Amino acid sequence: MPEPMDIAFEAAEAASKRGEVPVGAVVLGPDGQVLAVAGNEVEAGDPTAHAEILALRAAAAKLGRPRLEGCELVVTLEPCSMCATAISHARIKRLVFAAYDPKGGGVEHGPRMYRQPTCHHRPEVVGGVQAEKAEMLLKQFFAGLRAES
Amino acid sequence: MPEPMDIAFEAAEAASKRGEVPVGAVVLGPDGQVLAVAGNEVEAGDPTAHAEILALRAAAAKLGRPRLEGCELVVTLEPCSMCATAISHARIKRLVFAAYDPKGGGVEHGPRMYRQPTCHHRPEVVGGVQAEKAEMLLKQFFAGLRAES
């Protein structure tokens, strides 16, 4: 069975082929089973359709409840503040991400959401897993956009 | 025609009847036309289904694009960090909210999202519109929950 981060990379690469910023996310159940996989779908017409939001929604639909206690979210890029807060609302136990995002990240950068006193649920965070691969994927995508314009 | 905040209150009251925290949101187009109305749907099984997120998604679907330049979002409660960031991602021009939320708000409380240096789009913000009505609605809802438990 592929590693969860590799599944997230596959979703990121598929997103890139659709013209979406290449980010992919996976939600794992408490037993490590894959509950949901998603890639970015913003350009398809939904400003909230980051990979993490789509994966959280799909996992919640699968479990039939809005809170995903004991679940893990694996994503190829440091979540933005929207997604970091959604991960907290969903009671995700553990967040694993690949590349750090100094410009748009909200976990280890910007507002550092889980360090805010008003944050009611803080997941365990592991950042930098296969970071170089994720950075390369993003660089290639944005270099392609610049070449087109 | 009812005022946008009154439409948002109707959606909040409908949410309350479904057992959801009573918050309602409306997105208005650049011409002031109502593009989308939504109430909270979290307990129905989606941790990201705050009224604002649902209204943004519906408005984007209606316009067929993810960025809602020139649009306004009207909501009965100060948005949380997830929704505040989503409002920024969606390029909403103006945010109007009723009650302030010192515990969960992310606009004038907590991380104050639009004052973060990494925030790339800052809407105009008007808070406190019909705040007492929204506070009363929330108080009644939570008092009802306590009476049940």
Descriptive notes:
- 2 copies of one chain form a homodimer.
- Chain A has 149 residues and is an alpha/beta fold.
- Helices cover 36% and strands 17% of the residues of chain A.
- Chain A contains 4 helices and 5 strands, in the order αββαβαββα.
- Chain A has helices at 4-17, 51-63, 81-89, 131-148, and strands at residues 24-28, 34-39, 72-77, 94-99, 124-126.
- Chain A has a 5-stranded mixed β-sheet with strand order 2-1-3-4-5.
- The longest helix of chain A is centred in the C-terminal third of the chain and has 18 residues, at 131-148.
- Chain A is globular and about 45 Å long.
- Chain A starts with a helix and ends with a helix.
- The mean pLDDT of chain A is 97.
- Chain A binds chain B through residues 42-49, 53, 56-57, 60-61, 64-68, 80-86, 89-91, 103-106, 109-111, 113, 116-120, and chain B through 42-49, 53, 56-57, 60-61, 64-68, 80-86, 89-91, 103-106, 109-111, 113, 116-120.
